[in-house]
Amino acid sequence: MTKLQTMFAGIALALFSQFAAAQSASSTPGVTVVPAEMAPPPGDPAYTDQSRANRTNDPYVKRRAEIREAKQQYRTEKSAAKEDYKASRKDANKELKNSMP
């Protein structure tokens, strides 16, 4: 009998949660319709300045470009330093081998 009561309680909870979800206002898609006379005109600077439409003056885009260039420069310097290190190690190994009897 205990298993049956537990099962009924689970079913009741599932049905109630489905009913509550169906009745909630947040589950319906919220579409806000603005009348045309209240909408801002296209190209209004009060709205376009807030967007990322002007990418040349956008500080975030400029910062990402600076970071990208800095990373590229770092990688080229790192690879050049790595090549120099490998060459010096190779020369050191040759000298060591030549100095051994």
Automatic annotation (TrEMBL):
Keywords, sorted A to Z: Signal
Basic and acidic residues bias (residue ranges): 60-101
Region called Disordered, residue ranges: 26-101
Signal sequence coordinates: 1-22
Tree of life domain: Bacteria
Biased composition range(s): Polar residues: 48-57
Name of the protein in question: Uncharacterized protein
